[in-house]
Automatic annotation (TrEMBL):
PANTHER family: LEUCINE-SPECIFIC-BINDING PROTEIN, PERIPLASMIC BINDING PROTEIN OF ABC TRANSPORTER FOR NATURAL AMINO ACIDS. It comes from Camelimonas lactis. It comes from the Bacteria. InterPro entries: BCAA_transport (IPR051010), Leu-bd (IPR028081), Peripla_BP_I (IPR028082). This is Branched-chain amino acid transport system substrate-binding protein. Gene3D superfamilies: 3.40.50.2300. Belongs to the leucine-binding protein family. GO terms for biological process: amino acid transport. Residues 40-376 form the Leucine-binding protein domain. Residues 1-31 form the signal peptide. Keywords: Amino-acid transport, Signal, Transport.
Amino acid sequence: MAKRTHRTPFHLRRWAAGLALLAGAASPALAEPAISDGVVKFGVLTDLSGPSADGTGKGSVVAAEMAIADFGGKVLGKPIELVFADHQSKTDIGMATARRWYDAEKVDVILDVPVSSIALGVQQLTRERNRVFLMMGPGSSELTGAACSPNGVQWVYNTYALANVAGKALVERGDNSWFFITADYTFGHMLEKDASAVVKAHGGKVLGSARHPFNNNDFASQVVQAKTSGAKVVALADSGQDTQNVLKQAAEFGLAAGGQKLIALLFGITDVPGVGLDIAQGMMLTDAFYWDRDDETRAFAKRFYEKVGRMPTMMQAGVYSAVSHYLKAVAAAGTDEAKAAVAQMKKTKINDIFAKDGYIRDDGQMIHDMYLVQVKTPEQSKSKWDVYNIVATVPGEQAFQSLDKSACPLVKKTR
């Protein structure tokens, strides 16, 4: 009798909680949290050994670890775990890792994924498996365009915002003829496409482009083509080590001395020491985060620096922000089921070290301020990481493409 008496009230409580959930008014005291497999598990799929390693890589892993630790290591009483892997900038390796994580290792959220071609594959896989994909490294605007997903969020930047912020500023100053040196893969193509559209929309013209293979060392041909084009602006539609190598060789060929301006459309704080202020000085750039912006960012950067030995990039700060926001959403939703967690993320503004009043649109783009920055001269810089002046803060609604122009099929069009 004692056992029967014990079971019946518990059964009734579950029955009552179920009715309340169906009515849309579940009581937190009655509804039981639903954490799949008894653990919330993140997977940082990143570049640990290639050209994007400084901007993402180990720093992205550390940023995720910091966010988990700051949250207390548990959510809804269940442990939070983290795994990470190097995709080696190869689509087959990246996709094999993502499948193993989702299917065998029960990873709930994949993070980062620099290299847009890999990210596009992971986006599709995430949709099929009903998991969550939070993107910091990949920039292709297709990820929130035609290839958007209900469970995918592009957290930090996209190719449109990179081109729009700095590109618009340069064209409006009279730098209205452009030549592109472009990485010959998905990200480079999208960055050149979006930047070209921005230039033309503001009255400028594109004189040509020269493409190069990924992880290249010799850019002599591309630099010579850029120089002979006579374009006022030579725009680099690539990233990481490729961008650094182009800038160094452009200096050797005297592009800046000849009056041409160089703009690296994706250039992070960790790229500056690799190039040197003597070469990078004066460049106008787009960034989503700068460690020396305010007291809050400086405090976060100091903690990060103690673990990594360099200041955080926008991608690494974005990892911290996204992990924190996801965990808050799981706690509020009472579950880590993908659609419920993402729905809660979209209901809640993002206010942290990365973004103020940020929010996630229906197309999966997180909207937040972007910054037009200029690289300091050697004389202006007071330390190794004191490299930017913030020229302008561009509101997210102006930096990112408007939702009514989105190709995302999830977006409801209004007439």
